[in-house]
Design a protein that fits this description.
Elements (H helix, E strand, L loop, with lengths): L8 H11 L7 E7 L3 E8 L2 E10 L15 H8 L6 E3 L9 E6 L7 H11 L1 H14 L15 E6 L2 E8 L2 E7 L5 H18 L10 E4 L11 H4 L5 E6 L8 H10 L1 H39 L9 H9 L2 H16 L9 H8 L16
Helix pairs in contact: 1-3, 2-4, 4-7, 5-8
């Protein structure tokens, strides 16, 4: 379901350049992503194997305070990233939430180096996914058995929030869908209906049940109106304990975080496919019309077959049609009378207007 790489492509390129450099480089890079994520990569020639990486990113949940730094579970997740070559620096660089010291001397050469640097470049995804993992791991917690909690608003990309609602024996993730173009709404609505049918089929029985509704679900009552104003409806997934067992937890979290991106990718590909089909169809129609025009310009004597067939083909010739239309117009302009033998005598006898005389005669007075 996920279609994006967890590692930051730009950060990965910079770290690989520093790692593969023949001599120590003096560098100071500031990198921005998604409009809200900032990286600071600093290396010095005095310490050729050490590079400092600082990151500032908005937390997934807006309700978590930053006064004490990142949550403990998040720090433990970051420590699990290449623990031999990565070390957390305390306190972090001013203006950033986390600072890492990278020791390139402990990174082996070959394909293993690319793999380790890719894991280091995914630190922002680890920070955000750790918060959602902590929520999903408590899906069977006893403290929520008495009822459901208030929805938790999560923001992975700006202007694309989604909600997580804790319920007995499951956690529901609700995605309000918004699109700029009406055509995108039509494509996405058809996709959601197909996704709901496929998710509830027997072949996808192990997948989280999916539902789509044009109106907000009852669990979101009381939320801000700007969060519930959508034109694409609401997509919900029910996460149970079997969806977060072992390695499934990491996959489930990453799929939920990138659901918005996956839908936009699908809509973009579908729109491009439709445009290509329309363009191809238009080209085929133009080609047919061009062939017809070439055949009309050819002489009629090249047409073989019966006399009727030659007449039908001749009618398709545009020049012939124009000549026939002109001939008909000339016929209509002829205003001569038809001459019928004996018609004049018949008309004088029977079609003359009779002369009526007045019953009252007037007499001229002298």
């Amino acid at each position: 379901m996920a279609c994006f790489d967890r590692a930051s492509p730009a950060l990965k390129e910079i770290l690989l350049k520093l790692y593969r450099a023949d001599k120590p480089l003096e560098s100071d890079h500031h990198l921005h992503e998604f409009g809200s994520v900032e990286y600071h990569i600093q290396s010095s020639a005095s310490y050729p194997h050490h590079t400092h990486l600082s990151i500032s990113t908005p937390l997934l949940s807006q309700g978590i305070l930053l006064s004490h730094g990142l949550p403990r579970y998040t720090i433990e997740m970051v420590k699990g990233i290449c623990s031999d070559a990565v070390e957390i620096v305390e306190p972090p660089r001013q203006g950033y939430q986390l600072t890492l010291r990278l020791d390139f001397a402990r990174i082996p050469h070959g394909k293993e180096s690319i793999k380790m640097i890719s894991e280091i470049s995914s630190v922002q995804a680890v920070i955000l996914s750790s918060q959602l993992k902590e929520l999903l791991m408590n899906v069977n917690s006893q403290e929520i058995s008495q009822g459901m909690y208030r929805p938790i608003k999560l923001v992975y990309h700006p202007r694309e929030p989604f909600f997580v609602i804790k319920q007995p024996a499951k956690i529901t993730a609700v995605f309000p869908m918004r699109f700029k173009d009406n055509s995108d709404v039509i494509i996405a609505t058809a996709f959601f209906q197909e996704l709901m049918d496929a998710g509830n089929s027997q072949e996808c029985a192990k997948a989280p049940p999916c539902t789509w509704s044009p109106i907000p679900p009852p669990e979101l009552r009381g939320e801000a109106i700007e969060d519930l104003s959508t034109n694409g409806g609401f997509v919900s997934f029910d996460i149970t304990s079997r969806h977060v067992e072992g390695k499934k937890l990491d996959k489930t979290v990453w799929n939920l975080l990138n659901f918005y991106g996956f839908v936009k990718y699908h809509v973009k590909c579908t729109r491009g496919f439709i445009q290509r089909r329309m363009r191809k169809r238009l080209e085929s129609l133009v080609e047919i019309l061009q062939k017809v025009g070439i055949e009309e310009d050819q002489p009629i004597r090249n047409v073989q077959g019966s006399r009727c067939m030659r007449k039908l083909v001749g009618l398709s010739n545009s020049k012939t049609l124009i000549q026939r239309c002109n001939f008909i117009n000339n016929i209509k302009r002829i205003r001569s009378r038809l001459k019928i033998h004996g018609f004049n005598r018949f008309r004088r006898r029977w079609l003359t207007i009779p002369k009526f005389s007045s019953a009252t005669r007037y007499r001229k007075l002298d």
